[in-house]
């Protein structure tokens, strides 16, 4: 039977080989000529390779056979695939989540180990009463099996709600990035009407906005007083009373009071260096006003609106353009409120406490269901389960407020500043060239009008290049006849 199978396999391979040979033969002389040409090219390349030095030939071959997708397979934003399993296991001791939940995991491990030791001592004793107590320490796992589904729903719901807040925060800062780019582009398009000095002030305010918003939604002082030179030291007048998270309102630890004065944090001073970002982007005369402002990103929006309203009215900058500018500033103002909503409103306190209490009780009673089968391995097994369950809870807590470290706001702030301030010198040069070109057109038009006014003969047609310039209202391809009155009106 095996011999027949081997013969059949050999015949099948032979048939495949014959069909492949016939296919190559039917392809004609073109295929043969191409094959010979490729062979000659390979032989010539090999001869040149023998003639060239080793380093030169290696460089030529590396440049010739370099893959086109080189650099495209690099990891972006620390994204991990299933092939990175060993790296993730190896870096487990340095995990941030493990450090944050280390105390409850150690507590569960110690408690489970104590239960396993107590069960072993009672079961190994010769007294029947103690052995009965050891048997009663072991309970059925049916209750934990029923409760684990409900507990999983609690943890998953909390983690999903926290991820929705994280995703919303990312979208808010993406909108801030887009609006900042739009404002920078508009200030470049209407640079002549805005003016160079006002355009610089507008761009500096746009670049300073994300830094001030980041400081507004992140609690904590920027730096200490002793590390700054007195000449460049600036005191930020933080509010004397700052509201904590809204979920603590009506908490029993404050006596159940709903008075805002009972939920305030103590005041603290915050010193900054004028030479650092974003304070170096703000005019020296406005630094004191920024330091005294309670809501600094909102102050930036107010100042932007004032700068836009002060732009003089012109033929290329009407109320329509001004309204479009102000609509972009309103989007920045809306972004402040959205960030404050995420930062100041946490997950309901009752839900968070009930989830944590249920998880803790479930883990503390878990060793009694495993000690009969696992023995002294109850402690390590319970510690691993506690790491998994507390880790899910801690992930939801970490991304609940994405502005405290989950989102890389520093990178986003630097990206906005580079996009807004990066092409400022090129835009200034383009504006100078446009003004020089427009001045040349104006001089040409004025000289032509003066020459036409001195001519007392028949009316002379106006040149098309003047009619099509940006200073003319009439745009046509023909040359209409103008009278002397029209010349004088155009000159005025």
Automatic annotation (TrEMBL):
GO molecular function, one term: chloride channel activity
Record-level GO cellular component terms: plasma membrane
Pfam families xrefs: Bestrophin_2
Start and end residues of each stretch annotated as Disordered: 25-51
UniProt keyword terms in alphabetical order: Cell membrane, Ion transport, Membrane, Signal, Transmembrane, Transmembrane helix, Transport
Coiled coil: none
Membrane protein topology class: Multi-pass membrane protein
Span of the signal peptide: 1-19
Organism of this sequence: Seminavis robusta
Protein name listed in UniProt: UPF0187 protein
Biased composition, class Low complexity, residue ranges: 33-44
Subcellular location: Cell membrane
InterPro entries: YneE/VCCN1/2-like (IPR044669)
Chief localisation class: membrane
């Amino acid at each position: 039977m095996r011999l027949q199978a081997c013969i059949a396999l050999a015949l099948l391979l032979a048939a495949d080989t014959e069909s492949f040979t016939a296919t190559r033969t039917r392809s004609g002389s073109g295929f043969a000529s191409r094959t010979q040409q490729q062979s000659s090219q390979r032989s010539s390349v090999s001869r040149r390779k023998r003639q060239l030095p080793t380093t030169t030939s290696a460089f030529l071959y590396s440049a010739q056979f370099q893959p086109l997708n080189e650099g495209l397979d690099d990891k972006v934003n620390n994204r991990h695939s299933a092939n990175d399993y060993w790296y993730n296991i190896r870096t487990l001791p340095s995990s941030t989540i493990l450090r944050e939940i280390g105390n409850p995991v150690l507590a569960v491990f110690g408690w489970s180990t104590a239960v396993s030791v107590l069960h072993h001592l009672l079961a190994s004793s010769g007294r029947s009463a103690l052995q009965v107590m050891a048997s009663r320490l072991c309970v059925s796992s049916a209750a934990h099996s029923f409760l684990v589904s409900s507990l999983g729903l609690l943890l998953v719901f909390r983690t999903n709600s926290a991820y929705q807040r994280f995703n919303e925060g990312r979208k808010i800062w993406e909108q801030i990035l887009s609006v900042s780019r739009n404002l920078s582009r508009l200030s470049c398009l209407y640079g002549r009407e805005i003016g160079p000095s006002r355009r610089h002030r507008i761009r500096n305010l746009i670049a300073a906005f994300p830094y001030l918003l980041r400081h507004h939604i992140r609690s904590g002082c920027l730096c200490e007083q002793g590390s700054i030179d007195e000449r460049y030291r600036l005191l930020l007048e933080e509010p004397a009373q700052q509201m904590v998270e809204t979920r603590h309102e009506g908490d029993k630890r404050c006596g159940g009071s709903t008075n805002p004065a009972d939920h305030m944090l103590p005041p603290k001073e915050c010193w900054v260096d004028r030479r650092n970002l974003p304070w170096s982007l703000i005019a020296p005369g406005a630094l004191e006003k920024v330091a005294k402002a309670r809501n600094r990103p909102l102050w930036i929006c107010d100042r932007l609106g004032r700068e836009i309203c002060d732009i003089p009215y012109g033929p290329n900058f009407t109320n329509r353009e001004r309204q479009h500018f102000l609509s972009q500033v309103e989007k920045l103002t809306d972004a402040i409120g959205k960030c404050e909503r995420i930062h100041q409103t946490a997950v309901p306190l009752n839900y968070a406490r009930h989830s944590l209490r249920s998880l803790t009780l479930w883990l503390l009673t878990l060793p009694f269901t495993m000690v009969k089968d696992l023995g002294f391995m109850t402690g390590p097994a319970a510690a691993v389960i506690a790491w998994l369950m507390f880790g899910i809870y801690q992930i939801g807590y970490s991304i609940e407020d994405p502005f405290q470290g989950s989102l890389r706001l520093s990178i986003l702030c630097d990206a906005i500043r580079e996009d807004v301030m990066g092409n400022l010198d090129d835009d200034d040069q383009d504006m100078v060239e446009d003004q020089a070109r427009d001045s040349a057109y104006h001089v040409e038009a004025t000289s032509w009008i003066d020459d036409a006014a001195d001519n007392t003969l028949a009316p002379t047609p106006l040149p098309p290049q003047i009619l099509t310039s940006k200073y003319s209202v009439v745009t046509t391809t023909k040359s209409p006849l103008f009278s002397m009155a029209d010349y004088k009106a155009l000159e005025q």
